[in-house]
Each structure stands twice: as C-alpha cells, then as structure tokens.
Write a structure and sequence with these properties.
The protein has 1593 residues and is mostly helical. The chain is 72% helix and 0% strand. Helix 32 packs parallel to helix 34 and helix 56 packs parallel to helix 58. It is elongated. The chain starts with 6 loop residues before the first helix and ends with a helix. The C terminus is likely disordered.
Length: 1593
C-alpha cells in the first residue's frame, strides 16, 4: 500500500509537514465511505507512530499533532490504541532497544489522549507494567483468569434431569398435555420461561426436551414449530443446529439406527428455515467422499458381473466360481452403516420439501440417492401428489376411475400442477432426479405417459398463438428429454411389463419416426452405460437372449417366442441387436425368428425397425464379400429378414424406406436389396429372371391371372401388407422420389458407384437397381389409385428433361397412368351415350385414346433430335412405349390352364373324404368364385385387345414416315424403341417381339419386316457384350420370341403365304415407299425366305462362336445366357449345332478351374444342347437346294459355316486335308493373318447383295466347272468326289497372297498340297465310268436348273438394292462374258447344284475354297482364332474397298501353271496304287448317299469357316459375287434361254472333261487366264456396285 505520509513532510515537519498531516487526517475522517476512512486513518496514525519509533520524529512533536487530530473522530482513541497494540507486538520482537524506548516514550506522551482502561485491554501486561499502568504483570494475569472462570465456566443452571427432577417433570407435563383445546404455543412458552426461571433449568436442555417431545408427537406440527420458533429468539441461532447434530451423532455407532422421527423433525425444521441445511449437513454421516467411493465401487462390481456373464466358463471352473460368489454374498449381507443423509432426504421428500431435498441430491453422484428404493418411492409419491389435478383433468382414460390422491397438508410443499407449463417447471425436474428408478412405481409411469399423450394431442392440434407455440415447442423438447432420461431407462428396469410398453407406445406413436429412432438410439447405445443397474440388466438380457437363441428351432417357435416376448417388453434394443447379429451369421434362423416375434408389443416392433436400420447402416460392415464380386451374405440375410418381418407384423415402414432413399441420394445402391425384398414379400410382386414361358404368358393377363399363374409361390394375403406399404409411401411422399432415384442410379451404378469395382459386381448392382425399379413401379401401378398416380407422376417430358430419367424408365412409370387415364375417359364416354354397339364402343375408345395421348405425342417430340421424327412419327413412338402385352394379345392358354387347375382342385375337394363338409363347401365356393373371376377377366381382356387393334389399324398409316429410307426407319425403330425396351423386363422382351410381328401384320406402310428381322439377327455381338446378366437373359427371351415367329413362317409354305406372302414387309425392293400388293415379283418367295432364315441362323452361330472365343467373362456369360434362352428355336441345323457344341465344350474345359460360374453355365447349356440334338436337321432339310433325282428329301443349299451343300467331292477332300500334317494348319494360320484383313473387307463388302447359294466358292470358274459336271450322272459324281484331287487350293491361296509371302513358304505349301493330292489320285478308266453315269442323269439336271433359277431370282431381288443403272452395267458384263466363253447363263443352276465338277476344275475349286477359308467366319478351322481380333473390327471394315485381291494376278498365273504340272505328274504315279480303294469308296458312297453331306459338313466346319455362305460373307471371293449377282439378274429376265444355253454349254464342257490329263492341265491354264481378265473387269464393276449399295444402306 502506498505511504500516506511522504518523507518530505517529516523532514519539513515544522515548516509544512505538520499542517499537511492534520489536513490529511481531516480529509480522511470526512470521507463518506466509513470503512475506507477507518482503514486510511489507521494507516496514517501507524505511519506517524512508526516514524517516531525509528527516531525520525520526536515523540513530543507526534503527541502534539495527535492531540490536534484526536477530535476529528469519536473512535480516534480506540484507533490509536489499536496502533499502539500492533507496535507493541512489533517492537517487543525487535533487538534494537532504542526503538522500544522510543515506543514507550510515545505511549507515555499520549496517555492523556487514550484512557487507561482501553490500554489495559489491548497492550501486553509487561508493556503495561513498564508504562506504570499496573504494578505487577503476574498478579494482573491471575486476576483475569479468575474473572473468566467465574463468567464462563461456573454452572448456574441445571441440565441433568436428576439435578432438578421436579422442574423437568413439570416441563414434560406441560409439553405432553392434551393440545386439542385452546392451548397455544405462546401460552406454553410463558409457562416454560417460568419453569426455567423458577427451577434454574438449563435453556439448552429445555430446547432438547422440547425436540424430544416433538419427535414423539409428530402430528402437532402446528403447535411445536411456532413454539420452537418463538423459543429460538432467546437462544443463539446455532444452538438448535448443534443440539440436532448431537442427536444424530449419538446414532452414528456401527450398530446404531437413526429413528425416522428424528429425520422428520430435522426435515420440518429445515422446511421452516429454523436451521440451515449447510449447518446440519456437516453433522451427518457418511461423508460425501465415502458416498462417491461407494458409487464407483458399484460401477466396478456391475462391470465384473458383465464380464463373468460374457466369459466362457468351463464346467470345472463353474463350481469354484459359485462357491466364491456365495462367500462374497455372505460378506455383503452384513448391514452397511446407516446413511443419515439419505434418511434426512427421504424425510424431506415425505413432507414435500423439494427445495432442500434437491440440494442434498445435488451433493451426490447422479441417481445415487434414488437408487435406494425408499427414496425413489418417496419421490414418486411427491410426483403423484404434484401432478394430481392435471392428471385428473387430462390424463385419466375414458371409463377409468382411478383413486384420487390427497394433497400434502403442508403449505410449503410444491404447488400442484394445473397446466402443462407448471408440469414442466416442477414435475419434469423431479422426474429427472428419479431417472431409471421410476420403474419402482409403474402407476406413476403410466400417469406420466398419459400426460405425455394428452400433451401431444394438444401440441398437434393447431390454432394456438405464436407465443403459445414457442412454449409448446419447449415443452415438447422437455418431454423428449424425460422420455430419453426417465421413461425408457425405467422400462428397462421393469420386470417384463407388456402393459407399460403398450402404454408408452400410445405416446410414442404420436412422435414422428425421426424422434422415435433418435430416442431408441440413445436408449440402446448410451443409456445402458449410464448406471450400474442398467449395465447389469444389459448383460443379463444378452445372456438370456443367447440362451433362447441357442434353443430356437422351427419346432419350438411358440415357447421360444413367448420367452423372446417376455424379454423384449423391457429391453427390446439389446435383445434385437443380438438376434439380428445372429441372423446375419445364420440365415436359416430367419424363418423361426420371424415366427417367434408374434408376442411382441407395438413399441417393440417399432424398436425392431430401428434396430434393423441401424444394423444395415453399420459403417464397420463391408457390403461386399472379399472377392468383391458379390453382395455380402449378412446384407442379403438382413434384407430377407426385413421383407418377412415387415410383411407379417404391422411395423411402420417410413424409416426404412427413407433410409433406402437416403442411400440412393448418396449414390449407394446396395441397400436396394432391402426395398426389393420388402416389396416382394409385402406386395407379392416377384422379380425373377427364371420365369417359365407359362408364367410369363400368365403375366400378360389381368391381375387375377397374374396372381394365380404368374408367380412361383402362391401369393396370398398381401392385401393388408401392400396397403400398409402404399400408405407409408404416400404419407411420406416417397413413391416418386424412390422411382426417380432408382432410375437415375442405374447409370450411377456404372459411372459413379462402379469406379473400382469388379465388372461382375457392377452388373449385379445394375441389375438389382433395375429389377427393383421394375418391381417397385409394378407395385405402384397396381396399388395406387388413378388420382394418386396422376397426381404424383409428372408428364413424360418433365420426367426425362427435368428429372433426367432415362426414357425407358420414364415410360415405364408413365404407362399405367396412360392406361388408367384412357380407361377412365372411356368409361365417362360410355356413360354419356348409352350406345351398346361394338362399333360405338370402339369409336369411343379411340376418341378417349386420342384425348389422352395427344399431349403425350406433343411431349415426346422434345425427347429426341428433330431428324428422328423424319422417319418415325411421335405418335408411333408414343404408341409403342405406352402399350403393354396386355393390350396386344389375350393369353387364352394361360386362362384355360388356370381354370383347369381350379377344376382339378374342385374334383380333389369332392374326392377328399376327410375334409369336413363346411370346409368343403367353403373351398369349393372359393374355387368357383376364382374361376368366374378368371373367365370374366379373360372376356374383358379380349374386348380390350380388339379395341386396341382397331385403334392401331387406324393409326398405322401415319406411323412410319420414311422421309429418308426404309433402312433408316428400321434403324430408328430398333434404336429408340426395340432395343431399349426388349431388355427392360421379360414381359417387355416378349412385347417387343410381338409388336414387330403386329406392325408387320397390320401391313404398315414403309415397314420392312425382312430388314427388321435381318438387323436383329445379324450382329448380336455388340448387343450381347454390352448387357448385364439379367439384360442378357431378357435379350435372349426377345430373340427367342423373334425366332419363334420366323420358325413358324419357315416351317410351312401355307403359313408363310398366308402371313407374309402378300405383305409389304416382305417386299424386296426397299426404295419403293408405296405398296401395291399386286407385284408378286417384288415379294420374297417361300424358298428364298428359307435361305434367308438359314443365313440368320448362320449369323447367330458366327456371333456366338466369336463371343465364346473372346475369353472375356461378360461375353461368354452373356452369350451362354442368350443361347440357353433361344434353345427351343436355335440351333435347328445340325452342323451349326455341332459347331456350337465344340466351342461350348472347349469353354467347359478351360473354365473348370478358373471361373466356376462360367463353367456351370456352359455345362448347363451343353447338357441342354445335347438333349436337343435329336431334333436338329441336316442343312439340306432346312432350306431347299436342287432336289436330286434319287432322293426323296431335297438336298438343301448350304450357306452356313459347314458347307453341306457344296459338292461332296470337295467335302471329302477337306476331310483328307484335315488329316494332313499339323504343319499345314500352322502355315494356314500364318497365311490367314496376312490375308484376313483384306478378306474381311471384301467378304462383307456388299451386305445386301447376297447370293443365296451354298457352294463353297461361288465364282465364275467354279460355275464353269459345275456346268461340265452337270452333264454326268449322280453316281459318277459321288465317285469323283472320292477321287478329286485337292492340290491347288494351296497354290491358289498362295497366288493370291504371292506378294507378301516368302518363296520358301510357298514351296512348303506346294509340297503339302502335293502330299494331299497323292492321297486322292484318279485313273483314266474310272473317268470313263464317270462319263457314262453322268449321261444317265443329264436330262434330269437340266430340269432342276430351271426351277432353281426361279427360286433364286426372288432372293436376288430382295438382296439386290442397286439402282437400275447397275443392272444395265451387269447386263453388259454378262454379254462380254458370253463372248469370251459362253459361260454365263447356267450360273444360278450351277450355284445351287450339288453336282460334282470335272477333275480339272477340282483343283481350282479347292483353291477358291481355301482362299475363302482364310477368312474365318466364326467357323471352326484352325485359322479361326487368329482371325478373331480382325473379326472384332469387322463391322467397321465391312464396307471398305475390295479391289485389293486383284493386284497380284500375274504372279498368281505363273505359280498356278507350275504347280498344276507338278501335281498332275504326281497324281499319275499314285493312280494305279489306289485304284482298288477308290472303287470301294465309290460303292460305300453311293450306299450312304445322305450321310456324306452331313458328315462332310461337320468335318468341313472344322476345316474352314465361311465356305459356302455367300449369305453370311456376302460375296464369297473378292472378285466374284458382284458379277454373279448381275448374272443372276440377267437370268431372272431370260430364264428359258438360260436353260437352253446351259444345256449346250454343259455338253461342250463334258467333252473337255472326258479328255486326258494333258487336256485337263491345258484347260486349267486357259481358265486361269480367262479368270484374270474377268477379275479385272469384275473388280471395277464391283467398285461401282459397292458405292451404290453403300448409298442405299
């Protein structure tokens, strides 16, 4: 503290210091703040005196100035005495004697200012002696001790009863008299005072006796409290508290028990504020620290119990454990010392002193006090009293009386609650202190819950003011807190009280599910850890749950269910958590668990829903298995459990549905599995790809037929559950959002979620997302009312453009809306006019369609680019997307099937003797009703379908505008309609196929059915490769239905003529936009249609083989799925079937270890394929070639990979070739790699100009050769087949490839060719035989040529789309060729003829074949694999320039000449050796005429690919087909002349062929030269031709 007396004042004391000091003192004494002035004056005087002690100021100067200031204040002498007292103590401790002397002198100088008495009080006796104020300090001390003893320690009153028994007896009599009269406490107090005075009674002992009597007479509060209060005026305030403290201390021995009366008295005194709680609290035991320690110990013990329960204890250890536990329990039974704090607390609660009770509770750990039952019960009683009036007003249920509770007599008790606001202020606080121990009073629990219910009713009714609303909000949050902290924990501690659970649900169901789930979450994850009792309960619940779950089976569902029910009433969260963990591990528990949950309360079902969601959302669990390709089994089990449990029990679905929606928003689609299961189980709508065709057919009928025949399981009793699901979706506005999220998530799966995931899993998730969308949409369509649906689903353009819903999904969602809308409009119109005629009805139906669909036609325009609508009209697009199978056809067979089933059932019921009659009657009635329903439904659908077909008939002329080309129209139709929809669902797949047929049947202008089917079957590789597993299955169904139609037309000429013959869809001139049914020449005839179908089968085989050989998982899996689906209609041709079989067998071998799922698929398909084998037919039965004279069965043209229709001689040679060295195959592979690209280009160069011939190499040379041979007989042919040399193919191929191949390679090839040749030499004698035999059948041949030319012409027309300019060019070409060698006309006949060619031509033919072989169509030679990579790109290369092969002609010619000579020499050497063999072979061959083509086909397939299929490879050898096509056109115009010429030319050729081997070789050379010339012109021609066909395409 700063000095008040500066040193300058002391130095200049006389000059100015003294006056300054006086001035300071005056200022300080005038200070209004009394305390501050007092302290500062003390300091000022002390500093002055200290300067004197130190010798800085003389004592007389100081005494003078003190004399001046002494009158400034009255208490100045006392202040001065205090200063002297301090200095006395300080100076007596100092060693410097002079300072002590200065002090003594100062005091002596100031004696006149301070009285002696004051100094004697304050100074030390020794100092007093030295000042001379007392004589001897020792005497002074003795005297003061005596005075103190007399004052304080000498007893003048009696405090023992025996010392003054009369006085005390009178006192007790006074207090114990009857107080019921007019006696007041004041009166008694006067008497007591008299007794104290008279008998010298000790007042404290009198107070003690008053308390004793009060303890014994607790009912006289009104008397004793005022008495004590008045008495306390005579005592010190602490006295009463001390006396009570002594009383409590008396009972604090270990054996002592404090009486409740004492607690009560203390409580009453506390309540009337006669004592302070803080003063009394310190007298009570145990100390707060001991209480905290005990609480901690309880928690530790609880945890130990939990550990014991969860530990696995072996049986030997169990007995020891039990013994130890018993000992511990015995120790515990020793009574703990009395807790006086709790006793007092209980008393306070009983009398209603909540304020003090709360203070005591706050000193203790939470819930420690209420964990003692008496306190909990006392507090509950207090709450009962407090809530009574409000409960009576709003809480009592109707019809219940209840026993009213009287209020406390005590006016200081808490005020009773009259309103919810008061309830919040008082009662909620009390309940919070109660916590889980409200469980001690179930009645109070029920009351609180009922009040909560009443409050929620008020809270949810609107119309209150803003302030009230705020208050209500506060109240609501308080109610939630009470529920969380008090009600739920208390329920856990109650002993399986189902009624409480139901009572609580009454309140809970008024909360939104978000609040409920939050409460359950707290209850499950936090509450159980907050209190030792709850910790124990949790452990016991889990232990019991384990016990029950271990024993749960299907057989004991009922008893186990009851146990689960009991356990669940109190602790549902813990129990369900355990049960769900078990279900996730063992899915076979699902059914028994679901069945055992029937004894649950409503609250428990709700908790179960929460627990399921929590389990699903568990972030620690992986949603994929370790291989990352499949969804985890725990998730699948939970989903399955969800579906079952939500269907069976009335559980609220909103939370679960919202969870799925949230997951979708977050871009996670795994949890769609749950939605899928829930919809399937609750609505009975299955999604399965494994539907049988019967089921699929049933699914196209009405609702009743669907339910009866469309699903695997019988769908029963889904009405209520589907209604619940519908309500949940509508109430929470989740119906449309879920649809849109799923539709968007389909792409999300691929582009966002898919990221790093395995392709297989991405496909699975995509399928799951899509299937769930289809299923969910189906549910909405069948369950929502028209109004609901229309209100919720926006128009198609909004769906697509604003919500970015894919078009297929958008139409899928809108479709039911259109149907509903049309039917309601139609009903309106019917009611308006009562016209009953069919025509009227149809007219009304069409009107209603126009009304509903007009806006849709407008809306769809925005979905695609404007140029799309040049080809197809918006009306067509909308019609396609808005109709369903239900609209197109009636599944009569399905209806009949179901009706028959019902009849059988009824018969079985009649025959059943055991069934009681009344049950029989019921069952029969049910069956009859169902039967009637089905028949009614069938009739209704039939009428509907007729109306729809009428509508389509009227619309069809405006459907396809074809402003560009028919081809473009088909492209748009497939791209925008068929492909997106055929993979949407199984029924849509069937619908698409049906729709195509329908458009055809309606004779729709500008629709080319042929083109459409051709595009569908031609290149399926890309489509298949881009499908998911389920899409592949649906695509397979689509192809299956398309093939079914095609096969039906193919099977019978009558059907074909009837359904296709005169239809615009089968026009072969595609430029023509109008249709004049009259021109028969432009129609595709039956035979050519069969060729086309064979081409399609071939294309399918090619694509399938390609996919199987890629090694790609998706390709293989998908093609196997597709193949399995189309198995009823494909493969039909034996050689194609065998090709497939080999490839699939290879897959089986390769994938057995690597990819077991592919292996399983392949094995399954392989088995089914084998079983179909007996139904396959050789190719010549599949489509007609020239029927040979000898055979009843027509030999068919081969245009598949095998080559059954090629000359048999060739095929036999191929077999031989196959047996040749493996070296050869390697060489072939090398060659093919070089050649294949060119070939790919050329082979596919003119896709639409196909020559429907089955010969392996369809070029003009071969034609010539064929013509030669046609003159000879069939038997000779066969023989020749055996003998024909197979040398030159190698050379021919080499010639073609000459530039690129090294010479060594060529040489090798020549050698190989020679070796092969040597195996099949030919003798002159045998040639002569051949001649004779040929003559025999010459005439027959010439006839066949004509018929085949006719059949050929139609195909040519269909295939050839060049403008007429090209036809002219073709004619010119023909005439040139005629001039050269007169080889032109017989082309068609020879192309189709299976008749062998002359020997000379054989080598060339083989060359041609080999050339083509190197282009591996998907067939089965060794070259195939090498060519696959090129094939992948084939579509891109299809239409590229194809003149390349003609570049190397000169070299080719030279090589050919040399090779031919060599080969001829070799052949002559070997001829004689093998003569015998050949004869035998000839004989065998003529016997087994039919077997050879098939056999050779098979072998041939192995050898090469595109052998004969000009259909597939569109122009067989690079330079031929254009010219061939032109020739064929020419033929169409002049059939008869062609026939004559053909005969004459044949004759000439025959002569040539009969000459010797020299002639043959010469003949070969000539031919090659001619061919070169023709090739060059052909190449040019081809260019032109190609351009035009490209344009056309």
């Amino acid at each position: 503290m700063a000095a008040l007396l500066p040193a300058e004042w002391i130095k200049n004391w006389e000059k100015g210091g003294k006056s300054e000091f006086v001035h300071l003192c005056r200022a300080l004494s005038e200070n209004k703040n009394h305390d501050v002035g007092f302290r500062d004056i003390q300091q000022a005087l002390y500093e002055l005196a200290y300067h004197v002690v130190r010798g800085n100021l003389k004592h007389d100067q100081a005494s003078n100035v003190l004399g001046d200031v002494i009158e400034f204040r009255e208490d100045m002498p006392s202040i001065l005495a205090d200063v002297f007292c301090i200095l006395d103590i300080e100076t007596s401790c100092l060693e410097e004697k002079n300072k002590r002397d200065h002090f003594t002198q100062l005091v002596l100088a100031c004696l006149y200012l301070v009285s002696d008495t004051v100094l004697k009080e304050r100074l030390d006796p020794e100092t007093l002696e030295s000042l001379g104020l007392i004589k001897q300090s020792q005497q002074f001390n003795q005297k003061s001790v005596k005075i103190k003893t007399k004052l304080f320690y000498k007893q003048q009153k009696f405090n023992l009863l025996r010392e003054e028994n009369e006085g005390y007896a009178k006192l007790i009599a006074e207090l114990g008299q009857d107080l019921s009269g007019n006696i007041t406490s004041d009166l008694i107090l006067e008497n007591i005072k008299s007794l104290i005075g008279c008998f010298n009674l000790d007042p404290n002992r009198v107070l003690d006796i008053i308390l004793e009597v009060y303890e014994c007479r607790p009912e006289y509060d009104d008397f004793f409290v005022p008495l004590i209060e008045s008495y306390m005026y005579m005592c010190e305030p602490q006295t009463l508290c001390h006396i009570l403290g002594f009383k409590f201390k008396f009972y604090q021995d270990p054996s002592g028990e404090t009486p409740s009366s004492l607690y009560r008295v203390a409580a009453v005194l506390l309540q009337h504020n006669l004592i302070d709680l803080e003063d009394l609290y310190v007298h009570l035991l145990p100390g707060d620290n001991a209480i905290i320690e005990e609480h901690k110990r309880e928690i530790v013990e609880a945890k130990q119990i939990v550990r014991k329960l969860t530990m696995v204890v072996l049986s030997s250890e169990k007995t020891e454990e039990k013994e130890k536990e018993k000992e511990k329990e015995e120790e515990k039974t020793e009574k703990p010392p009395d807790n006086q704090k709790l006793g007092l607390l209980e008393a306070l609660l009983k009398i209603g002193d909540w304020h003090h009770a709360q203070s005591i509770m706050d000193q203790m750990p939470p819930f420690y006090s209420t964990s003692h039952k008496p306190i909990a019960i006392a507090l509950c009683q207090l709450v009962h009293v407090t809530i009574e009036p409000l409960y009576r007003r709003v809480g009592v249920p109707k019809g219940a009386k209840g026993s009213p509770i009287s209020s406390l007599p005590n006016k200081r008790a808490p005020k009773q609650a009259e309103s919810f606001e008061e309830l919040r202020k008082e009662v909620f606080n009390m309940l919070c202190y109660l916590g889980p121990h409200l469980s001690h009073d179930p009645i109070l629990f029920a009351k609180v819950v009922r009040l909560g219910k009443a409050f929620m009713k008020e809270f949810q009714s609107d119309g209150s003011k803003q302030e009230d609303k705020e208050k209500m909000e506060t109240l609501f949050s308080c109610l939630l807190s009470i529920t969380d902290q008090v009600l739920l924990p208390s329920l856990s501690l109650m002993d399986c009280n189902a009624c409480m659970s139901e009572e609580l649900w009454g309140m809970f169901k008024t909360f939104p599910y978000q609040y409920r789930y939050r409460l359950y979450g707290q209850w499950k994850n936090e509450t159980y850890n907050s209190h030792p009792l709850l910790v124990k309960v949790k452990a016991q619940t889990i232990d019991r749950a384990k016990y029950i779950m271990k024993r749960l089976t299907k057989e004991n569902v009922k008893p186990s269910g009851r146990q689960i029910g009991k356990l669940s009433h109190s602790n549902p969260t813990i129990l369900f958590d355990y049960i769900l963990s078990q279900i996730q591990k063992y899915d076979n528990l699902i059914t028994p668990v679901v069945d055992s949950l029937k004894y649950l309360t409503s609250l428990n079902y709700d908790v179960l829903a929460y627990c399921i969601i929590e389990a699903l959302a568990n972030p620690e669990k992986e949603r994929m298995k370790h291989d990352d390709t499949t969804i985890s089994s725990w998730l699948q089990s939970l989903a399955s459990f969800c579906g079952a449990v939500f269907r069976k029990y009335p559980i609220e679905l909103a939370g679960l549905l919202q969870y799925v929606a949230n997951q979708l928003k977050a871009g996670k689609s795994f949890d769609l599995l749950i939605l899928k299961e829930v919809v399937q189980k609750m609505a009975g709508i299955e999604i399965t790809e494994e539907m049988t065709m019967e089921q699929l057919e049933a699914m196209t009928g009405g609702e009743q037929l669907k339910a009866e025949g469309g699903y695997f399981g019988q769908i029963r009793n889904t009405k209520k559950s589907s209604q619940r699901l519908k309500d949940a979706l509508l109430d929470h506005d989740l119906a449309l959002p879920l649809c849109l999220l799923m539709a968007q998530q389909r792409n999300g799966v691929v582009f966002q979620e898919g990221g790093e995931k395995h392709l297989k899993l991405v496909g699975k998730l995509y399928d799951q997302c899509h299937d769930t969308l289809v299923q969910f949409g189906g549910f909405l369509a069948s369950n929502l009312s028209t109004e609901d649906y229309i209100k919720r689903v926006p128009s198609i353009d909004v769906l697509c453009n604003e919500f970015h819903t894919p078009h297929d999904a958008a139409f899928f969602l809108s479709r039911p809306m259109y149907a509903h809308h049309i039917s309601s409009k139609y009903d309106e119109l019917k009611k308006a006019e009562k016209g009953n005629k069919q025509q009227h009805k149809v007219h009304k139906y069409i009107t209603s369609c126009e009304l509903v669909m007009a806006p849709v036609h407008e809306a769809v325009i925005s979905l695609h680019l404007p140029k799309v609508w040049d080809d197809i009209s918006p009306q067509f697009y909308a019609t396609f997307w808005s109709l369903t199978m239900y609209d197109l056809a009636v599944p009569h067979s399905s209806y009949d099937r179901e009706v028959n089933k019902l009849k059988v059932q009824m018969k079985a019921i009649d025959d059943n003797q055991e069934m009681p009659p009344n049950k029989k009657k019921k069952e029969k009635e049910r069956c009859t009703a169902l039967q009637d329903k089905l028949l009614e439904e069938e009739k209704k659908q039939l009428e509907h379908v007729q109306r729809v077909l009428q509508r389509l008939k009227l619309e069809k002329d405006n459907w396809l505008l074809a402003k560009s080309t028919k081809n473009e129209t088909i492209t748009k139709f497939l791209q925008l309609c068929i492909f997106p929809r055929c993979i949407f669902s199984a029924i849509d797949a069937v619908y698409c196929a049906h729709f195509v047929e329908l458009v055809h049947q309606q004779k729709t202008p500008n629709f080319s059915t042929l083109l459409c089917y051709d595009r569908v079957f031609s290149d399926i590789i890309y489509t298949v490769a881009s499908c998911t597993e389920n899409e592949a299955s649906r695509y397979g169904r689509f192809l299956c239905c398309m093939l079914e139609t095609v096969t039906r037309w193919h099977s019978d000429r009558v059907i074909y003529e009837k359904e296709c013959g005169n239809y615009p869809g089968f026009l072969t001139i595609l430029r023509a936009t109008g249709f004049d049914g009259g021109n028969k020449a432009d129609q595709l005839d039956y035979e050519n249609f069969r060729h086309v179908v064979h081409k399609w089968h071939y294309k399918l085989t090619k694509a399938s083989v390609h996919c199987l050989e890629t090694g790609e998982y998706t390709h293989i899996r998908n093609i196997l799925i597709v193949l399995t689906k189309i198995l009823p209609w494909y493969p039909k041709v034996l050689n194609l079937g065998q090709a497939l079989e080999r490839r699939v067998h290879k897959i089986c071998q390769e994938e057995k270890e690597k990819r077991p799922d592919l292996y399983a698929l392949a094995m399954g398909y392989s088995g089914q394929l084998k079983s179909r084998k007996p139904f396959m037919i050789p190719e010549n039965e599949f489509h007609h070639k020239d029927p040979p004279a000898r055979n009843a069965v027509p030999a068919t043209v081969q245009n598949g990979p095998g080559g059954a229709g090629m000359p048999t001689s060739l095929t036999i040679n191929t077999v031989r070739l196959e047996e040749g060295t493996t070296e050869e195959t390697d060489k072939l592979k090398e060659k093919s790699q070089g050649v294949v690209k060119v070939i790919n280009k050329t082979v596919n160069a003119t896709p639409k100009v196909t020559t429907s011939n089955g010969n392996s190499a369809s070029n003009s040379k071969i034609i010539k050769e064929k013509d030669d041979k046609e003159k000879s007989g069939k038997e000779k042919d066969k023989e020749k087949k055996d003998k024909t040399p197979a040398v030159t193919p190698e050379m021919k191929a080499l010639g073609k490839d000459g530039k690129d191949k090294p010479k060594e390679e060529r040489a090798n090839k020549d050698e190989k060719a020679r070796e092969i040749k040597e195996k099949t030499p030919k003798s002159d004698k045998e040639k002569e035989k051949v001649k004779k035999e040929e003559k025999a059948s010459k005439e027959e041949k010439s006839k066949t040529v004509v018929t085949i030319i006719e059949s050929k012409s139609a195909v040519e027309k269909e295939r050839e789309k060049e403008p007429s300019r090209e036809r002219d060019l073709a004619k010119e070409m023909k005439s040139k060729e005629n001039a050269k060698g007169g080889e032109k006309v017989p082309v068609a006949g020879s192309l189709k003829s299976p008749v062998p060619r002359s020997e000379t031509s054989e080598s060339e033919r083989e060359q041609k074949r080999r050339k083509v072989d190197t282009h591996s169509s998907p067939s089965h030679s060794s070259t195939v694999k090498d060519n696959l990579n090129e094939l992948k790109d084939s579509s891109a290369k299809h239409y590229i320039n194809h003149t390349t092969p003609t570049l190397s002609k000169s070299k080719e010619r030279e090589v050919e000449k040399k090779d031919l000579d060599k080969s001829r020499e070799r052949s002559r050497e070997r001829e004689k050796k093998d003569e015998k063999d050949r004869k035998d072979r000839k004989r065998d061959h003529s016997n087994s005429d039919r077997e050879v083509p098939q056999d050779s086909t098979k072998r041939r397939k192995d050898e090469n690919g595109t052998t004969g299929s000009s259909k597939h490879s569109k122009s067989e050898s690079p330079s031929d087909s254009p010219r061939l096509n032109e020739k064929e056109k020419e033929k169409n115009k002049s059939k008869s002349s062609g026939k004559e010429k053909g005969d004459s030319i044949k004759a000439e050729k025959m002569e040539k062929s009969s000459s010797g081997s020299k002639k043959e070789s010469r003949h070969d050379k000539e031919k090659t030269e001619k061919k070169e010339k023709r090739d060059s012109t052909g190449g040019k021609e081809e260019k032109k031709h190609h351009k035009s066909s490209d344009k056309h395409r």
